[in-house]
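Hi V.,

You were right to ask for the full record rather than a summary. Here it is.
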Amino acid sequence: MKKVKITVMKMARYDDLIEGYENPIPHPCDLRLGQVFFFDGTGKPEGLCESAWETLFPFVRTLFEGGGNFFDGWMKDPFSAMLSCNDGFRPVSFYLETGEED
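Predicted structure:
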């Protein structure tokens, strides 16, 4: 099994959509650009929001188990993935890559 490094690469915010459609919520996203999380097989990394984790988990699990090459050559590094959370108001892009062997 390989640890999976999850890095916050880009964060967007669509104020026009927020103003038009979202009910105000406190702390909708507490992630920071460059923030790093590690998955070592024990569950959602602390501090990573549930919504992002639902999107990332299938790819994280595959990388953790040694798989990769998503969508037949999508990524330059076949043991990585670039994914965004499913928040349409504040999407966050994450880079997933394998790390040290356990």
